UniProtKB/TrEMBL annotation:
Keywords: Signal. It comes from Streptomyces galilaeus. The keyword Signal applies. It comes from the Bacteria. Residues 1-25 form the signal peptide. This is Uncharacterized protein.
Length: 216
């Protein structure tokens, strides 16, 4: 049985985000061995924000036109959202930029996170981290911006710029989360760059960090 680990981006990423890092309440969860394995032909991948046609066409293109991006999906507090590789993300109204990522025991993770303050990140900034399981990588983080991002992208090492999914709570919470399922891509080599854009393509916030070495 493999063990999924959600790894905070590291001290460098936290410092660049201007706070103590992303508000992740769950770490070290172990999913069932059969849960949505990437190397099976029947994998069920749920990426919020993709249209059916984009998903069918495998669209994760660099530099997608900002005006075509739908912005974050609005979700209810505590609602589990599948973000790939069997993981679920939930946003909490308690605390500051408070969210969970869990492969199982999602309800328990939410209950534990209710009592946490969450980690505040600097205004108009973004945080980042990643979960690694063999060649499967799941990137997650939070944004806190005056303007709701139209899109958030990642550039991993020398690779192309790819679109992340985004979530936020109803109303004007001033923050939200993002995620990118890089199943099968292998542990990142080189700098991970995360950028939030407004509808005109202007940069709202960005972050660059070096992934922790394998085994850490």
């Amino acid at each position: 049985m493999k063990t999924k680990r959600l790894v905070i981006a590291g001290v460098v990423a936290m410092a660049l985000a201007g706070g103590t890092g992303t508000a992740l309440a769950v770490d070290g969860l172990t999913p069932p061995a059969e849960a949505d394995a990437q190397d099976t032909g029947s994998r069920r991948e749920a990426v919020v924000g993709e249209t059916a046609s984009e998903k069918a066409a495998g669209v994760r293109l660099p530099g997608r036109v900002a005006a075509a991006a739908p912005g974050p999906r609005v979700v209810r507090p505590y609602a589990p959202v599948e973000i790939g590789q069997g993981a679920k993300m939930g946003l909490l109204p308690e605390g500051r930029q408070n969210y969970v990522v869990a492969w199982d025991d999602y309800e328990e993770a939410v209950e534990q996170a209710r009592s946490l303050a969450g980690d505040s990140i600097r205004p108009n900034s973004i945080s980042g981290g990643m979960g690694v399981d063999g060649d499967d990588v799941l990137f997650t983080g939070a944004f806190r911006t005056d303007t709701v991002p139209a899109r958030i992208t990642l550039r991993i090492g020398a690779g192309p710029e790819v679109e992340a999914g985004m979530l936020r709570l109803p109303g004007t919470p001033g923050w939200g989360t993002y995620y990118y399922d890089a199943a099968g891509a292998g542990r990142p080599q080189g700098t991970v760059e995360v950028t939030a854009y407004d509808a005109d393509g202007s940069v709202l916030a960005d972050l660059a960090y070096e992934p922790s070495p394998a085994g850490r």
